[in-house]
Amino acid sequence: MSLLWKEIRDSPMLWLLLAVPVVFVAASVAPEAHTVLFILSVLAVIPLAGLLSHATESVAAKTGDAAGGLLNATLGNLTELVIALTALRAGQYTLVKSSVAGAIVTNTLFMLGASFLLGGLKHHTQEFNRANARLQAGLLFLATVGLLVPSAVASRDSGSATDVLHKLSLGLAILLIVGYALGLLFTLKTHREFFASAEHAETEESPWPLGLALSTLAGVTILVALVSEVFVESVQQAAEVFGMTPAFVGFIVVALVGGAAEMASAFSGARKNRLDLSVGIALGSASQIALFVAPVLVVLSYVIGPTPMDLQFPPGVVVMVFLATMTAMFVTNSGRSAWIVGILVLMVYMIFAMTLYVLPDRGHEADPERVGARLGSVPW
Amino acid sequence: MSLLWKEIRDSPMLWLLLAVPVVFVAASVAPEAHTVLFILSVLAVIPLAGLLSHATESVAAKTGDAAGGLLNATLGNLTELVIALTALRAGQYTLVKSSVAGAIVTNTLFMLGASFLLGGLKHHTQEFNRANARLQAGLLFLATVGLLVPSAVASRDSGSATDVLHKLSLGLAILLIVGYALGLLFTLKTHREFFASAEHAETEESPWPLGLALSTLAGVTILVALVSEVFVESVQQAAEVFGMTPAFVGFIVVALVGGAAEMASAFSGARKNRLDLSVGIALGSASQIALFVAPVLVVLSYVIGPTPMDLQFPPGVVVMVFLATMTAMFVTNSGRSAWIVGILVLMVYMIFAMTLYVLPDRGHEADPERVGARLGSVPW
Amino acid sequence: MSLLWKEIRDSPMLWLLLAVPVVFVAASVAPEAHTVLFILSVLAVIPLAGLLSHATESVAAKTGDAAGGLLNATLGNLTELVIALTALRAGQYTLVKSSVAGAIVTNTLFMLGASFLLGGLKHHTQEFNRANARLQAGLLFLATVGLLVPSAVASRDSGSATDVLHKLSLGLAILLIVGYALGLLFTLKTHREFFASAEHAETEESPWPLGLALSTLAGVTILVALVSEVFVESVQQAAEVFGMTPAFVGFIVVALVGGAAEMASAFSGARKNRLDLSVGIALGSASQIALFVAPVLVVLSYVIGPTPMDLQFPPGVVVMVFLATMTAMFVTNSGRSAWIVGILVLMVYMIFAMTLYVLPDRGHEADPERVGARLGSVPW
């Protein structure tokens, strides 16, 4: 317990933990104060994500290389998964999908770009392990193809098409999960020597004892789930107050909040000229969400959602995910970086953010007729 | 003749030649047994494709380097060409187009991916000649642009647009054939030293005497044409029986059947750690179909088809060809491979196959109104 | 003055300067002779562009490295900017946009491809500086994303959407200009050592004295503006006479005319085996138009245009710009070239040119209903 307390004292971000009890009190006292609840829940998720990430790493460090790597890779985006599951149970599929797509794009562009920029401002040029970057970019590309194709075939006749789309989405989800598992097999087992540097660095901070780590993992996951509930309930009204579209909230705000802890590690790695670590976290996290979190959500939607969720995204979102993947493929190709590369990647992200911010609320769930009209305009 | 017989005895695949007489007997006895005829004709095409391929290589080996290379490159996809010509004469343009697009995608993804996987399962990492891979990928990209643009400009007003599309398709076809010819000039003449390893390996099996090779070439081509006729007539009804869409049959089944012989060589090359050979066959074959077979079919449609054929493909097909080309560009970029690369490429193929299998029958020719509706939904 | 005269005598292209007075006389004598005026104005712009380019380089050479590079980079596409401004003031936004997109595509494909081809016909293989090529391709990619996204979100409901589109276009324009400025900072200041070879070569011809250079710059800019006015007024009727669509004229003809001077330098560099120079001019010019000229036009449209101009391009144009950027990324990736690479790039350009030539006149401004119908068919 004193170790957990030391952790909290050392890391200023963890003072935000104070927001956790406040959000629960506020939610029961003033359930209609959506804007306040939204802000509080965002503030509360950030430190919880940090604790979750550290606890996962600690468990991974204890359980040895292969199992640890597996655990780390599987629970690395637990925050995003829990938030998405909460939205899934509430049937808010637009929020689920935009937060999944947003997490992919934010990790690929914002986390990677800011790492390049922060590292580049300190070091003239930086080198990183191409093998890992290329593999992660390749897996990301595979997932993008999986997202792109069902969206491309979605047809106008909504009758039988929905059924077809659900069957296809389930099949693709299983395929992507298999791909993810094989990717882990490759990096953790058969060809681990290519990924040495990235792996080593991840357990850099002193790990917690196993008991503390496991109980933190369990406890914090529950807290994240509870806070997520407040977040999901308040997000739509709060977004309207701030003049943000739901798409912007899911795509940008949720993604930045959910990835805060990983970003801290990626940025600190870049400053220390360990760009391998940063690239590994950014692209690894993006490909994990695309190949594991998103498919798992599709499969779980059959169990816990009101109706099955498909993998169809609005065309604009597909274009963004595709362009983000292309950007990652392009900039990691040379294995070298300087600050301008970071600017370039960040600007692609800013173009997306700007577009989503300005966009009228396509896909607003409260207005099914508009959604219908939008689906009708899907171009294939 | 005894050489031909030895060939047949040594290669178990050639026992399938027994299906050739059977298919002709069956076609005249029971012309309505579409499912049986379909299966028999598929079985019969596979060994014929193998013989055709060996005969072409034997003639090429006799006629010396430049002419031989030219011959090999031109007749390498003779099976696909003959099947497509048969479908063209029957006016089944959807089948023609989907078999062309399918052959490109299947060679680029299935043949390449399975080579990487089979090679990678035996060898930890493999290297291959990047120069050839890059050139073939570049030619493939050129052809993809040629396919993409007319499909992108196809407009809603069907009146004058059809005319424009035909003019454009013919022009592009000629352009692509010129590009193909210049590509041969480059690899066989001006810069042949860059492609040494790939070329050398192609004439690995002991060549036949010229007379046998030439008569086999002639005789087998005729047999393929006759079997193709049975195949084209039976494919639609058989597909319905198996619950497959015509798109799936053209795209996947025909492509796998037509490419069986080349696949055998590519896979055996990969197992022998001669990945140059595999990559050369897979991408070379894909770019040949895209730059030579498809344009030749457009030109010939003016001579033998009921109406001219254009180069417009449904948007979903264009997306698949484009993504297949991008995949090839990406994975051949490093000149190195391991088993996960094969998995990645194969999974992209499986996503396409799954989508086409599940898809309702867009582009079904028996239903012109639906086709009209589809064309109306072309997005540009 | 005698230096200017020497320049004119030495360079046969400059004899075309005789067309300048002729065009003004013709415009006042026969303002209805659109075809003649069109041809004369094209002929007159070519040598003026050459003088402008030489004058800019001379000023740049005098003012020292950083300031000179900045000046060179900013005024390098002055001809294109002046022509576009004239069309902007006349409210001919389709011409403005297609000339901007055409300049990007023409520089990326025609100038780069012809340089590779001309160099490759003389030298077996050529090498060039990948760092610069990759940076320029990256900047071009950034701009393409900026063009692609607003076109992707353009929605059917034209009411509020126009407003949104204008806000978005203005925001993106400012973002791209900032990106351009940072790119200059990188190449001219913080990482100039990577771009040494390309920069050095640009001031190869003997520079003029500063006074002559400055007055030429001022005088010729005015002449270009005056000639552009004749050009813009005559282009539509002349295009109809020649059977060319306005899209073809803006995309191909204007782009070739405006870039004539730079092409001369790029081609001569390629023949001298200084491919760094050619690639730098071609991609540098393309990225300058995309990141600087186009955004500046958007901003200026608020000041001098009849209505604000947005960054929305027809989908076909977006596809072409995107494919041109992909081509540049692909072919510059290896840092090596041979003649077939030039052929490949040129053929992509020819596919575009052929398509635009054959295309019915989408986007014809004289027919607003058709434009409306087209916008309605924007696919997102």
From TrEMBL, chains A, B, C:
The keyword Transmembrane helix applies. Signal peptide: none annotated. It is found in: Endomembrane system. Keywords: Antiport, Calcium, Calcium transport, Ion transport, Membrane, Transmembrane, Transmembrane helix, Transport. This is Ca(2+)/H(+) antiporter. It is a multi-pass membrane protein. Belongs to the Ca(2+):cation antiporter (CaCA) (TC 2.A.19) family. Residues 35-188, 214-357 form the Sodium/calcium exchanger membrane region domain. Ca(+)/H(+) antiporter that extrudes calcium in exchange for external protons. The chain crosses the membrane at residues 12-30, 36-55, 67-88, 100-121, 133-153, 168-188, 208-227, 247-267, 279-305, 311-331, 338-359. InterPro entries: CaH_exchang, CAX-like, NaCa_Exmemb, NCX_ion-bd_dom_sf. Pfam families: Na_Ca_ex (PF01699). The keyword Magnesium does not apply. Coiled coil: none annotated.
